[in-house]
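REVIEWER CHECKLIST
Item 1: Sequence provided? yes
Item 2: Single chain? yes
Item 3: Sequence as submitted:
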Amino acid sequence: MREVLIVAGEVSGDLHAAAFATALRARRPELSLVGIGSVRMAAAGVELIERSEELQAMGFVEVIQSVPHHWQLLRRLRTRLASGTVALLVVLDYPGFNLKLAAAAHDAGVPVLYFITPQVWAWGAGRIAEIKRVVTKAAVILPFEETLFKKAGIDATFVGHPLLDRAAEMPDRTEARRRLGLAPEARVLALFPGSRQQEIARHLDTFVAAAKLLEQRIPALQVIMSVAPGMTIDPARCPWPQVSQRPYDVLRAADAAMCKSGTTTLEAALAGCPLIIAYRTNPITAFLARRLMKVPYVGLVNVVAEREVAHEFLQEFMTPDAIANELAPLLDLHGTERARMLAALESVRALLGTAGAAERVAAMADGMIG
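Item 4: Structure as written out by the authors:
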């Protein structure tokens, strides 16, 4: 039986890979689906060769520490690609590993579909030539990426952002608050410090300190913390309720959110939740990033809008006082700053395309398998 190899090198890609796998299985039930991912891919019927939790590394320093394990896995997958059983390689994000794997597939004559391509518009423009050489088709999820890749001679299609499929199932504000046990009239702040232990370690104390400052300013403010599946934060460090695996419930229930940089900022836009962005990484990583970044923003909501929709607090500027000062007006339900941001978030949502990304990518894969 021929197989499709699906590689989501990070837990954050597991959800999108699972939706794609479900759509592809509906089209081609005879195919065997194998890959690297987490619980959602496994639930979608993908036989996991390795769990993506074992591969996670962030930043230049952290990646270096994980190199030996990555090379061992790459050797195993090269052997699989050379065996003749793989009909298609589908890779999601994680370019440091996945571009090497795509090169191995190219050398073995296996077509490559890159879903959620590297952010070459931010940094790593040198990867464009490598993508053109080893990737057969690219399914891109940000509107400007299709033009960027096509200009470079890469067969790219904008499929819409996969978050739109999840957003279609969002509860309204009343239902979200009912699910979370929050009073309809409560003023609510949501904290999203990150889904990885490295992010929690660098963000949590500052997020908590900023929220405590806001509690002093806003009577009866309720704070809730969104945590990744399987993660629990010590109540001594975070005295508020923790909600797992329900980010849209939290965002729809909240009046404003304190978010780490990344996909969460787009989720907030889709939920219509005003936000600030805060992020801190290894100092060496930050030093290099500031010299390599080609765009002025790190938050995806700002990248898509091509302007600062949500204020960014990065590295040494990520302080409790600064964050609290920016968030306070967003928690004013009748304030002009809140109204301005809600309008901007709606414009971002309109730029992300329409729901159905997984189905479109599955159709692309189906055509490539033949």
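Item 5: Key structural point noted by reviewer: The domain at 3-162+355-369 is CATH 3.40.50.2000 (Rossmann fold).
Item 6: Recommendation: ____
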